[in-house]
């Protein structure tokens, strides 16, 4: 079993990003600028956004945080988005999800200028991804592709089973793994909560991508010997032993699955760290107008 080490890969890729940001600063006198909008003060979102901001500073980007109370209206949020869309000083911005129930995340996602949508959630970016056109890729799937690429994991011709069909992970992941690219060229099966006999599919997976949102959902009996196992789970539980007061669990029963796997990502220290690298890459690409002219 070999660990797909998100810490190692993300540090390596962030070094490259820092070099390119420094080059940009020298040439143009400005840094890539990411803005994050955070609504409410739920501990989880707070931690992730703080980590995004910290990583921006680390690689020499400018980052700004816009905070709203949980009572903010959809209209107020939309007017902020309009302002950021127009602001030439802002290269990319994200609205941290989940949002409170009175705000429709689809309305928010579509209001963001797709040329600044460094999360890659806008339908234009998703549609362009599906057609293999230049676009911002959604950060978590992009991060997984970067991880597979870094370790040279062979994917062509393999059976890839994705568990979970969310808009931001499972569904785009299935598209990326099926396309004619490296990594890619898999035969992909997208499974979900209504899949009958799920383990019959997962047991056939050469590459298993778990994005369900349930702690220890993938058990050893569901995994083929020698499989590549990618754990996208981020299940937070309160804990008295960690500094943050939370402990993070994946969707995979790591202890029992790892001995069977050829490669496996840990949680924490796997996919989450790659998600941040992808966001940085997208922000750099936005700042350089690499994908869209602005
Ligand atoms: N608009 C939007 N864009 C997102 O990209 C987005 C979002 N909303 N909502 C929530 C999810 C979650 N997410 C993570 C980012 C970093 C880690 C991360 O750094 N994880 C570390 C440590 C985490 C810890 O220890 O708490 C690790 O896995 O090792 C995890 C998860 C981005 N998300």
UniProtKB/TrEMBL annotation:
It catalyses: (6R)-5,10-methenyltetrahydrofolate + H2O = (6R)-10-formyltetrahydrofolate + H(+); (6R)-5,10-methylene-5,6,7,8-tetrahydrofolate + NADP(+) = (6R)-5,10-methenyltetrahydrofolate + NADPH. Pathway: One-carbon metabolism; tetrahydrofolate interconversion. NADP(+) binds at residues 164-166. It comes from the Bacteria. SUPFAM superfamilies: Aminoacid dehydrogenase-like, N-terminal domain, NAD(P)-binding Rossmann-fold domains. Residues 138-289 form the Tetrahydrofolate dehydrogenase/cyclohydrolase NAD(P)-binding domain. PROSITE patterns: THF_DHG_CYH_1 (PS00766). Its EC number is 1.5.1.5, 3.5.4.9. The keyword Hydrolase applies. GO terms for molecular function: methenyltetrahydrofolate cyclohydrolase activity; methylenetetrahydrofolate dehydrogenase (NADP+) activity. GO terms for cellular component: cytosol. GO terms for biological process: L-histidine biosynthetic process; methionine biosynthetic process; purine nucleotide biosynthetic process; tetrahydrofolate interconversion. Keywords: Amino-acid biosynthesis, Histidine biosynthesis, Hydrolase, Methionine biosynthesis, Multifunctional enzyme, NADP, One-carbon metabolism, Oxidoreductase, Purine biosynthesis. Residues 4-119 form the Tetrahydrofolate dehydrogenase/cyclohydrolase catalytic domain. It holds the Pfam family THF_DHG_CYH. Catalyzes the oxidation of 5,10-methylenetetrahydrofolate to 5,10-methenyltetrahydrofolate and then the hydrolysis of 5,10-methenyltetrahydrofolate to 10-formyltetrahydrofolate. Homodimer. Belongs to the tetrahydrofolate dehydrogenase/cyclohydrolase family. This is Bifunctional protein FolD. It comes from Pseudopedobacter saltans (strain ATCC 51119 / DSM 12145 / JCM 21818 / CCUG 39354 / LMG 10337 / NBRC 100064 / NCIMB 13643) (Pedobacter saltans).
């Amino acid at each position: 079993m070999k660990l797909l080490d998100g810490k190692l890969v993300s540090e390596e890729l962030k070094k490259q990003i820092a070099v390119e940001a420094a080059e940009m600063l020298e040439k143009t006198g400005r840094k890539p600028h990411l803005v994050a909008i955070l609504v409410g003060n739920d501990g989880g979102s707070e931690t992730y956004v703080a980590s995004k901001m910290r990583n921006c500073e680390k690689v020499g980007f400018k980052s700004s945080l816009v905070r709203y109370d949980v009572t903010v209206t959809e209209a107020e949020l939309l007017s902020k988005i309009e302002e950021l869309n127009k602001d030439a000083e802002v290269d990319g911005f994200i609205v941290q999800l989940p949002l409170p129930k009175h705000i429709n995340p689809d309305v928010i996602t579509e209001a963001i200028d797709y040329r600044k949508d460094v999360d890659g959630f806008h339908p234009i970016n998703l549609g362009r991804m599906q057609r293999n056109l230049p676009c911002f890729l959604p950060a978590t799937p992009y991060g997984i592709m970067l991880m597979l690429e870094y370790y040279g994991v062979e994917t062509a011709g393999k059976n890839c089973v994705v568990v979970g069909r969310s808009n931001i992970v499972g569904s785009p992941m299935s598209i990326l793994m099926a396309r004619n690219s490296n990594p890619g060229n898999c035969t992909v099966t997208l499974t979900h909560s209504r899949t009958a006999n799920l383990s019959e599919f997962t047991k056939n997976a050469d590459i298993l991508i778990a994005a369900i949102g349930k702690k220890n959902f993938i058990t050893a009996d569901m995994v083929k010997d020698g499989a590549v196992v990618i754990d996208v789970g981020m299940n937070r539980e309160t804990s008295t032993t960690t500094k943050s007061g939370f402990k993070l669990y994946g969707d995979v029963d790591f202890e029992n699955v790892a001995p069977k796997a050829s490669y496996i990502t840990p949680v924490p220290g796997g996919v989450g760290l790659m998600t941040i690298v992808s966001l940085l890459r997208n922000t750099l690409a936005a700042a350089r107008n690499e994908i869209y002219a602005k």
